[in-house]
Amino acid sequence: MMAMILAAFAACKKEEPETNTQKTPVSFEIEENVTRTVTDGSVTTFVEGDEIGISSSGLYEEMTNETFIVTAEGTLSGESFFYDDSRSATFYAHYPNTAVYDNGTVTMTVEADQTSAERYNASDFMTAISEGDPTTGGRVSINMHHRLTLVKIIWQGSLHASEATLHEIVRKVTWKHSDNTLTLGEGTSDILTWKVAADKQEYWAVVPAQTIAQGTTMLTVTDADKYFQYVTEKDVTFNANTIKRITLDLKPDGSVEASMTELDIDDWQADDLVCQGTVDEYEAPAIELISAEEGKNFTLLKGMKKATAQAGKWNAANNNEKTDENPDGNVIETITEDEQTVLHMNIKSNMVETVKKNDDGTTTTEMKEMSSWWDNAVYFRPDARTAAKIRPVLYKLTFDVKASEVGKGFMVQVMKGDENGNIYFGITNADPTVKDNVTYNRMYYPVLKTADEYSTMSFWVDFSKIVSTDGKTITEGLVGDYENVLLTLSINTGTTEANAYGVDFHFKNFQFVQLK
Questions:
Q1: In DSSP terms, which residues pair with 366 in a beta bridge?
Q2: DSSP string for residues in 445-460
Q3: What is the pLDDT of residues 430-482, one digit of tens each?
Q4: The sheet that has 27-31: what strands, in order across it?
Q5: Torsion sign across C-alpha atoms 318, 320, 326, 327
Q6: 3-state class of 227 per DSSP?
Q7: Of 396, 382, 387, 400, whose CA–CA distance to 427 is shortest?
Q8: Cis bond leading into 96, ω under 30°?
Q9: Rounded to a whole number, what is the largest CA-CA distance in the chain?
Q10: What is the predicted pLDDT for the residue at 360?
């Protein structure tokens, strides 16, 4: 039996019209079984916090994209509205309410990045047109319909795919209340799809109804160090309220068999289009954790920590920042030189003199470290999409660096850093592609041989090698180790002459790329 959710308006209520005739309030019920899809291909209810936009025609006071919110109890929370005496009214509902309303039209732009359930659901555009009659109690039944195409990409024959990307997709569509039509927008872009489960090679995205022209590279699947492009042999039409399933079967000989079918699952309808295409294999391009362009121009987020460093960002941890009130504090900032970004660091000594009172009444002066190097460092964390592509292979890190004094050093390492502990990936300054038996460390301490002059430094990071904290043991790195990867920079805080407290360091031209 179809379940209904009854709208509750008590929390936020308009003044009832003062007329001789009691106005009938509007109440809504929304059909539960036609809502947002979940990973098993069935349907699910709206969840707490979901927002639905509703407009009306014919009420005493009209709704204009009014927001109704699903509560924990499964009701809809919103303002009260009333019928105009015995006159019936029409209601126009849409989800998600982030779509843009404008005078009887609603424009939806699906996410270009649908790589999570949240982003996918935020793109699942649904609409409803319903009638309400005050002479029969005023209750309005809202029956939502999917207005886009659900594209399901099934990758078979391999467990190593990392992403599937749709190409040449128009992302914008406009719904018109008056005639219930959809108008496709302009411009195309890629759409990154959602991997629906860790143990499945299945990727989903919702897209507006449209036709992809013959000869278009419509889909790319990245699998380990290769990627596969699906090129259409004739026009492919995505129809509204339709599931389009594209199955790509990787054969043992490396060939791929492609098929496309349409499914009918609950409210999602089927069409009878049969599509054909060719799939060609290419060598996947080198993964760039930091591209040359990204390494020249970037911004720095301040107030961060190792565990909270944001993905796709440069992050600064500075527990003793220089301010007007603290002129002797640390400097971790970006400046501009020759129209590109330069990272500037000057870390002051965090050793402070403390006085300890002894049992015999005498006092002893001691130097005490107030914080650790990781509290005064720069962290770069790749975005989740890029990190998902990392494999246990060799990468090369390069950048330019200069110091204000000769013989002073800094620290560089690549790690998996989070609140649950650290994993250190092997790093060396010797090129392992030309030299045998290189030594990998968990961090490196380069020393600058010149002052105030940039030097280019190169380091090789092997993601197949995990180095123990004491540096004595190397174990095999696995694919699952690459979440929360961090490139870390700080200064040499050791007791050697290379100790760099108070020294100015400048870094620029970062690049961190997989070696093919």
A1: 354
A2: --B-SSSSS-EEEEEE
A3: 999 999 999 999 999 999 999 999 999 999 999 999 999 888 889 987 766 77
A4: 139-142, 27-31, 4-8, 76-77, 66-70, 51-57, 89-95, 126-132, 145-146
A5: negative
A6: strand
A7: 396
A8: yes
A9: 95
A10: 80
Q: What is the pLDDT of residues 203-262, one digit of tens each?
A: 999 999 999 998 898 998 888 777 888 888 888 889 888 888 888 887 666 666 666 554
Class of domain 1-146 (CATH, top level)? mainly beta
In this structure, are strands 313-318 and 300-301 parallel, antiparallel, or unpaired? parallel
Ordered alpha helix ranges (H), 74-134? 117-121
- Is it the case that residue 2 has pLDDT exceeding 50? no
Residue 387: strand, helix, or coil: helix
Fold that domain 147-284 belongs to in CATH: Immunoglobulin-like (2.60.40)
Topology match between the domains 1-146 and 147-284? yes
- Are 175 and 102 spatial neighbours (Cβ–Cβ below 8 Å)? no
pLDDT at position 350, please?
63
User: Which tokens sit at 155?
Assistant: 């990758």
Cα atoms found within 13 Å of the Cα of residue 442, Cβ hemisphere only = 16
Distances (CA, A) of 60 to 66, 83, 249, 252: 15, 5, 58, 68
Query: What is the CATH number that goes with domain 290-514?
Result: 2.60.120.260
Percent of the chain with pLDDT over 90: 44
* Mean pLDDT, the chain, whole residue set: 82
Closest CA to 149 of 113, 124, 184: 124
Which residue in 5, 55, 68 sits closest to 175, CA to CA?
Answer: 55
Q: Report which DSSP code applies to 361.
A: S
Confidence bin at 283 (pLDDT 50/70/90): low
Query: Which residues, 6+ apart, have CB-to-CB distance to 457 below 8 Å?
Result: 398, 399, 400, 401, 429, 446
pTM above 0.90, yes or no: no
Domain extent listing, the chain:
1-146, 147-284, 290-514
Look up residue 66 and give its two tokens. 């009014």
Angle at 301 between CA 298 and CA 305, to 5 degrees: 130
Give the span between the Cα atoms of 64 and 102, in whole angstroms: 9
Residue 117: exposure state from Cβ atoms within 10 A (0-12, 13-18, ≥19): middle
Find where tokens 């006159």 sit.
Answer: 87
Cα–Cα separations (whole angstroms), residue 319 to 182, 329, 465 = 54, 9, 32
